[in-house]
């Protein structure tokens, strides 16, 4: 069969896109309250952060947290002068004071605490380590490990590190201390304006090969204008040789202090591998103790006491070569000058990853429910049946959600910046833009993919918001701990970030860290150059989100084509096969299998089948619809047999005919309509609409098809006029033609006057919605229209008006109409087909069916019950083949064969009966279409039971 022209040109890609965009914009305008509620959530969270920040700042601004001040007597008339500075501050206040001239401090080694110093244990059995009894009396030495290619040379260099006795020159404390190996057990801070070793009650240790009995004393140390006494304590330094660096590594690993685990810990001060060093070359590798360095990731790294270890090695090497009088002194370490600062904690950065994860992911259920809403209410398929292609739908829907998400994120960032949240103001806005843009694209793609899994808006909403809050909580209370654990493998972090919510959390976490540190240190937040930092996970987050976006988008489109559009999973491999199968037919081979079925059919049904066979052999035809052995079988479930919904239906409809489908509930009428409009695929056989195969060419069929479904598929927030404008644009109506077509459609179904056209469809009555659905099915002059019980719920006046619309509409198109109203079928349909149990039982116009299946009169007479026998005798005298079909309380009905009686004889018999007994009422009627329907249905059902 060849394609036939449908008169109306098909709407282009951009015309369809324009129609959908206009509809979406109207829909968005009507849901302004929902949009406001959506924006209020991040607005509320940002205000909550500002409130918390204000409360914290008020607490931090108390005098106890600011640089200390006092009133100093100037000696002038008893007046005092207010002075502020370190010398007037407590230890809690000193960090906020200005330090224009930071004090020089002696460089120190990191000395293990007494309980952690290396001893012999069951897992470290070197005999040169001290026995564990030294811990009970507090006399354990600190250990240095030495190795190298030349043991004699290595031990000689190491022997010069702290072989000299302590010599304190009180006139120059720093110079005299620089000649000795000093150390401390205290933890370092993030700055060195005041080293904890000199601001606590813990003595500073100096290392000696042996300590004398009187080995602890105090020396004066000047800090700014203040001088205080610092205790110095001798600690024995034990230098031990190891045969290789691998032995040192093994010993260090076994003795490493891991967190706060209560286990035996063997720490050393430092280890030196002099490798191939000699008198002409110094080549040394140094291990240092970083146990006390803060590396949890949520604070700036603390300083490490490494420079002194380097100086000990180089100075000892120099003295070995040139003698003990030559020194490479390391006199002091000193911080840069510091202005007075205010103690601040940026809570937007601390809580940002959790709060802002919720803010951004809440867009996911919004997009998801919108997509599922169209799926649940079959609005997507309704648009498709009226000509909307997959390309315009995906492009406009995706761009629509992307625009909404972008505006939402822009408002979020602008508002957060306007109220001064450091999370936004310190980090580079271009990085934020790229990150948010990539993620909202991934989120929209994910919503399209997940929408295929849901058919209920309520279920999708619940699952969506569980994902919102679950992702935030899991990110804040699980994923963040892995990020902060430096021992957790990087590959594990990347694997976890494959879940989109965690990749979002990782990016927000990096923003928060940079903004927090920037606020604390007075520096900038994240910049593009920072992405090269190995500790910055933003680059990996960028890559993961971008790749997942593209992958998920492709998978979502594929799933949509398979799940929503009903295509084969291998549809992308069948483009060439599609064209071949729609043009090559083998009807003779196909019909051999249905020979037995044909022999059992009624003559009119068999003639229809033969007509279809002839049409299939013709090169062209004027018939709009040709069904060829169409069959639909639903598989059995829960032990039930399979259900035959439609049994090898063959039917041909010419242009300008309205074909009515009658049948009891469950007869297969809706299943047939669903196959014709593309909602379900036929199990076998096919049908041609305008010469196009419903199995392969539904996208082209949709452009010339109109549908009035059994249930109204409407947007509650769109008006009747807006519905018709949208579907009219899909049918390529434009400008004045569109306006005229919409007005005529509204007038034809009585929805134009009284402001009804501009009333939202959700406020329509059931009858008004039904009339609007009929108007939608006829807009744009479709050549084929399917109406599934169009007059359901209409009052008599509206029904008659609708009938007039359908009668006018069928002049230049084919209409298939299903109904339970015999009056409607007789009034509208040129031909009727009665379906029972999925089979077509008879075909013909109403008069033919009544003549063929209702060749009798119905005689009714009402008398007293005493004369019932006399009435029956009267009927038997008229015709012995009369059949009683009804009897109750004196009222009896009989079927009289038309060819055996004359109407005049019936009237004469009744007049004679009236002279013998009282006749209360009587009547003679021709067979109705309802009688025909009941007779055919009962006969088919009896045959089905017997067979």
TrEMBL record:
One of its GO terms (cellular component) is membrane. InterPro entries: AAA+_ATPase, ABC2_TM, ABC_transporter-like_ATP-bd, ABC_transporter-like_CS, ABCA, P-loop_NTPase. SMART domains: AAA. Keywords: ATP-binding, Membrane, Nucleotide-binding, Transmembrane, Transmembrane helix. It is a multi-pass membrane protein. It is found in: Membrane. PROSITE patterns: ABC_TRANSPORTER_1 (PS00211), ABC_TRANSPORTER_2 (PS50893). This is ABC transporter A family member 7-like isoform X1. It comes from Sesamum indicum (Oriental sesame).
């Amino acid at each position: 069969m060849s394609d036939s022209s449908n008169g109306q040109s098909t709407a282009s890609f951009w015309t369809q896109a324009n129609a959908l965009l206009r509809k979406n914009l109207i829909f968005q305008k009507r849901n302004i309250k929902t949009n406001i509620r959506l924006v209020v959530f991040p607005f509320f969270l940002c205000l909550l952060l500002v409130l918390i920040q204000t409360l914290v700042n008020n607490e931090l601004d108390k005098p106890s947290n600011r640089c200390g001040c006092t009133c100093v007597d100037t000696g002038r008339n008893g007046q005092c002068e207010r002075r502020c500075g370190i010398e007037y501050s407590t230890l809690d206040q000193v960090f906020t004071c200005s330090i224009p001239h930071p004090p020089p401090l002696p460089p120190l080694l990191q000395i293990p605490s007494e309980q952690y110093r290396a001893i012999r244990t069951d897992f470290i059995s070197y005999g040169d380590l001290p026995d564990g009894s030294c811990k009970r009396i507090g006399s354990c030495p600190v250990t240095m490990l030495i190795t190298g290619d030349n043991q004699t040379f290595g031990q000689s260099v190491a022997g010069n590190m702290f072989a000299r006795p302590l010599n304190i020159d009180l006139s120059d404390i720093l110079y005299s201390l620089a000649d000795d190996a000093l150390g401390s057990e205290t933890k370092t801070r993030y700055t060195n304006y005041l080293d904890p070793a000199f601001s606590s009650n813990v003595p500073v240790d100096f290392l000696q090969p042996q300590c004398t009995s009187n080995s602890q004393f105090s020396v004066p140390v000047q800090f700014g204008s203040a001088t205080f006494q610092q205790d110095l304590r001798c600690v024995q330094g034990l230098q031990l040789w190891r045969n290789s660096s691998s032995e040192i590594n093994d010993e260090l690993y076994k003795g490493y202090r891991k967190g706060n685990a209560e286990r035996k810990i063997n720490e050393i001060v430092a280890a030196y591998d002099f490798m191939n060093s000699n008198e002409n070359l110094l080549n040394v590798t140094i291990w240092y103790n970083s146990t006390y360095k803060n590396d949890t990731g949520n604070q700036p790294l603390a300083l490490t006491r490494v420079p002194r270890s380097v100086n000990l090695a180089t100075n000892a090497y120099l003295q070995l070569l040139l003698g003990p009088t030559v020194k490479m002194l390391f006199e002091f370490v000193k911080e840069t000058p510091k202005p007075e600062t205010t103690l601040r904690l940026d809570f937007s950065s601390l809580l940002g990853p959790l709060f802002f994860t919720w803010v951004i992911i809440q867009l996911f259920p919004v997009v998801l429910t919108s997509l599922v809403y169209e799926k649940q209410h079959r609005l997507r398929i309704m648009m498709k049946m009226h000509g909307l292609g997959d390309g315009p739908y995906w492009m406009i829907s995706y761009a629509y959600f992307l625009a909404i998400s972008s505006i939402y994120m822009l408002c979020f960032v602008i508002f957060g910046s306007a109220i001064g949240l450091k999370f936004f103001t310190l980090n580079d806005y271009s990085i934020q833009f790229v990150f948010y843009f990539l993620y909202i694209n991934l989120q929209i793609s994910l919503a399209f993919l997940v929408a295929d899994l849901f058919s209920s808006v309520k279920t999708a909403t619940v699952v969506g918001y569980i994902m919102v809050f679950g992702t935030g909580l899991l990110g804040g209370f699980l994923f963040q701990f892995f990020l902060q654990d430096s021992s957790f493998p990087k590959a594990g972090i990347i694997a976890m970030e494959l879940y989109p919510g965690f990749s979002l959390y990782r990016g927000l976490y990096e923003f928060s860290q940079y903004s927090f540190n920037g606020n604390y240190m007075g520096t900038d937040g994240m910049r593009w150059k920072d992405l090269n930092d190995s500790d910055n996970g933003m680059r990996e987050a960028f890559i993961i989100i971008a790749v997942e976006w593209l992958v998920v988008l492709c998978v979502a489109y594929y799933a949509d084509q398979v799940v929503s559009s009903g295509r084969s999973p291998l549809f992308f491999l069948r483009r060439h096969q599609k064209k071949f199968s729609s043009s090559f037919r083998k009807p003779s081979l196909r019909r051999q299998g249905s020979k037995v079925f044909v022999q059992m059919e009624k003559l009119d049904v068999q003639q229809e089948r033969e007509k279809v066979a002839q049409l299939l052999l013709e090169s062209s035809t004027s018939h709009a619809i040709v069904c060829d052995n169409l069959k639909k079988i639903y598989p059995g479930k829960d032990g039930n047999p399979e259900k035959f919904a439609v049994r090898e239906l063959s039917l041909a409809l010419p242009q300008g005919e309205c074909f009515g489908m009658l049948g009891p509930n469950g007869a297969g009428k809706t299943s047939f309509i669903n196959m014709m409009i593309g909602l379900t695929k036929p199990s076998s056989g096919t049908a041609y609409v305008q010469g196009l195969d419903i199995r392969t060419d539904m996208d082209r069929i949709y452009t010339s098809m109109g549908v009035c479904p059994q249930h109204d598929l409407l947007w509650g927030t769109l008006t009747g006029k807006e519905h018709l404008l949208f579907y009219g644009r899909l049918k390529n109506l434009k400008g004045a033609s569109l306006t005229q077509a919409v007005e005529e459609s509204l007038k034809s179904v009585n929805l134009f006057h009284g402001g009804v056209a501009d009333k939202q469809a959700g406020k329509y009555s059931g009858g008004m919605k039904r009339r609007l659905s009929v108007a939608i099915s006829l807009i744009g002059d479709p050549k084929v229209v399917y109406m599934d019980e169009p007059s359901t719920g209409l009052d008599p006046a509206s029904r008659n008006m609708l009938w007039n619309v359908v009668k006018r509409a069928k002049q230049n198109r084919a209409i298939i109409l299903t109904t339970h109203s015999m009056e409607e079928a007789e009034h509208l349909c040129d031909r009727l087909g009665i379906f029972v149990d999925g089979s077509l039982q008879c075909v013909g116009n109403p008069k033919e069916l009544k003549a063929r299946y209702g060749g009798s009169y119905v005689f009714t007479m009402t008398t007293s019950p005493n004369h019932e026998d006399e009435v029956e005798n009267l009927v038997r005298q008229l015709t012995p083949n009369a059949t009683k079909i009804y009897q109750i309380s004196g009222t009896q009905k009989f079927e009289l064969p038309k060819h055996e009686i004359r109407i005049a004889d019936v009237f004469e018999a009744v007049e004679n009966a009236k002279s013998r007994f009282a006749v209360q009422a009587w009547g003679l009627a021709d067979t109705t279409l309802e009688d025909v329907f009941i007779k055919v249905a009962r006969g088919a059902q009896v045959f089905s039971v017997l067979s």
